[in-house]
User: What shape does this take?
Amino acid sequence: MKKSLVFMAVTVLVLTASVGVLAASFEADGSYLFGETQFNDTKSKDQGFLVNAAAEIYSNIFVDGSLLSVTGEVEGAENKPAQRLMLIGAKYRVLGDEGLEVFAGGGWGTYDYEDLDGKGIFGKLGLRFDVHPAISIVGDVSYAPKFKSDVAEGVDGLEGTLLSGRASVSYQVMSDLGIQATIMHNTVDMGTEKVTSTLYGGGIVLRF
Assistant: This one.
């Protein structure tokens, strides 16, 4: 809950900046996702939402954030494991050719799934390709090489990696509104504990 509130606060700040004189553009999207998560030998059927937001606060410099929140169902079990992934950071547009943009950046990420949690600094690569004035392909990959988990007080935490990738195809139906299809894959590998999820779905895109 606290992480969701933090993300909401950051999104509000980004939106506030976007309507001021500092931001050249603002984009946000939300998707409802379905899929499967495997935690060691346990599989769950998941559903939930993914929200992303980014604002260009200076020429070629963006602040952005994303929040994934899904809940799963394990066959034959009563518990419903919840999965949360939050990434907040900044990125720089290294290439801005006609119809093609390439980004590089990084930030801070946190992850929770059942008793496993992690946090750490990540790097990100992303692109946007306009195949048609109304159709765009957007993708990004984030990687945290030293993702740390605090298992319990007084016990040495685990250290591993986080890999998160997302790809979306959007269609602009109005000047500031579009619809999109999204697929997302996440892997958190802490050595003795590993979570892998693949999610897909659709939603809307807002651009200003």
Observations:
- The radius of gyration is 17 Å.
- The chain has a mean pLDDT of 86.
- The longest helix spans residues 2-18.
- DSSP finds one helix and ten strands in the chain.
